[in-house]
Amino acid sequence: MAIFNNKKGLALPIILALVLLLAIWIGSLAWSMTNARSRFQQVHKARKAYFMARSGLQHFLLKLKMLQRHGVESMRALEQANEDEKKVLYSVFLQDIMVPPDDSYSGEKYEYRVNQFNIESVDYDNARITLQVGAEGSFGGQKNSISRLVRISR
Question: Which residue among 5, 52, 108, 123 is least enclosed by CB atoms within 10 Å?
Answer without folding.
Answer: 5
